[in-house]
């Protein structure tokens, strides 16, 4: 019985991490549709209840997404820079279930304006 109970807890935690990863990816998807200035503007935003990439509610109670946006050097992604004139940002999404952190994911977004062979360059 104890082993079965342990397996059930492990399975539930695994499912929670899977949902958390999905919800972090939804913020990434939302951000990748925005200009860089708009991504910078969501720094410090908490989505509670959690949202999908379309901005609509995830519809399951207890989940929240906490977003931190850090402007970084385009030539050294480990170096933080001032937001003015930034060409790259690190988007960190912490997903929580009932206040407990489940997943933290980081993504990078770049200002592609002026880059040839991209939609943003035209």
Q: Would you spell out the secondary-structure blueprint of this structure?
A:
Layout: H1 2-31, H2 36-41, E1 46-47, E2 63-72, E3 88-97, E4 100-110
Antiparallel strand pairs: 1-2, 2-3, 3-4
Compute the gyration radius: what is it? 17 Å
Helix fraction by DSSP (H/I, runs of at least 4): 25-40%
What's the rounded overall pLDDT mean? 89
Low-confidence sequence ranges = 1-10
Q: In total, how many beta strands? A: 4
Q: Could you describe the largest sheet, including whether it forms a barrel?
A: 4 strands, antiparallel
Name the overall outline. elongated
Determine the N-to-C terminus distance.
63 Å
Strand content: 25-35%
Number of helices: 2
Cross-sheet strand order for the largest sheet = 1-2-3-4
* SSE succession: HHEEEE
Would you mind describing this structure in some detail?
- By secondary structure, this protein is α+β, with helices and mostly antiparallel strands.
- The protein has one domain.
- It has 2 helices and 4 strands; from the N terminus they run ααββββ.
- A 4-stranded antiparallel sheet has the order 1-2-3-4.
């Amino acid at each position: 019985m104890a082993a079965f109970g342990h397996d059930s807890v492990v399975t539930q935690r695994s499912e929670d991490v899977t949902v958390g990863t999905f919800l972090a990816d939804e913020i990434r998807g939302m951000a990748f549709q925005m200009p860089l200035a708009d991504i910078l503007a969501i720094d410090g935003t908490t989505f509670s209840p959690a949202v999908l990439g379309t901005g609509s509610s995830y519809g399951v109670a207890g989940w929240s997404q906490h977003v931190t946006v850090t402007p970084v050097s385009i030539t050294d992604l480990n170096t933080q820079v001032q937001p003015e004139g930034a060409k790259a940002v690190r988007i960190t999404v912490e997903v929580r279930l009932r206040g407990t952190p489940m997943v933290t994911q980081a993504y990078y977004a770049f200002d592609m304006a002026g880059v040839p062979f991209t939609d943003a360059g035209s």
